Amino acid sequence: MLEDILKQVAAGKLSPEDAQQQLATFENLGFAKVDHHRKKRQGFPEVIFGEGKEASHIIDISRAMLSKGDNVFITRMEKGKADAVMSALPAFQYDEISKTLFMKNKAFEQKFNDYIAIVCAGTSDLPVAEEAAKTAEACGVEVRRFYDVGVAGIHRLFAHIDEIREATVSVVIAGMEGALPSVVGGLVSHPIIAVPTSVGYGANFNGLSALLTMLNSCASGISVVNIDNGFGGGYNAVLIHQIANRST
């Protein structure tokens, strides 16, 4: 990229001012520095964490990203704040279950084959599972959902296991005792991203018991992200999926 820009400047096709703007690594909005080069470094644009941010700040950050042609994905958005953002940028689509906003500013490049499996133990875990699923879809990856297949009725998992096995990587979400990733990990030959949720009764300790179960799994190939971190699970799965597609 740098060499191309310098050649354009030398040939008189690009002014030094425009070249400087293209080479800027971030845009300073005062309250935020928008990382426009995230896509060049990591393959995907910056994702906006909505919790704790003012709606006006989210709108300004989104506009800065849209001006560069990026798609915009926002997590942890309560409906009231999402409505305020959509009043200014109505092209956003809000998903109330995952609490995410997404605007597709440009078409995805057709660079991925196969799919990621999102495997969810119970209906109470759906907000975290959908955050993972929406994250992967915002990165242009096909997702297949396998929901309500927890260990209390393990036959429900076995009904889908052949399709799950064909995925490049699985994101497995569970609360309570968090046993599902261990079960899936013993049945598939691809990486598992385990996501503990805070769903459960008192001794679940807001997800700590599920987290410790997943960290102590005897099944191989399991990595664990933080409690309720559906975004982290989905994003890590996308990175694995991206690497797998490079070799095809």
From TrEMBL:
<feature type="domain" description="PurE">
    <location>
        <begin position="114"/>
        <end position="246"/>
    </location>
</feature>
<dbReference type="Pfam" id="PF00731">
    <property type="entry name" value="AIRC"/>
</dbReference>
<dbReference type="InterPro" id="IPR000031">
    <property type="entry name" value="PurE_dom"/>
</dbReference>
<protein>
    <submittedName>
        <fullName>Nickel pincer cofactor biosynthesis protein LarB</fullName>
    </submittedName>
</protein>
<dbReference type="InterPro" id="IPR039476">
    <property type="entry name" value="P2CMN_synthase_LarB"/>
</dbReference>
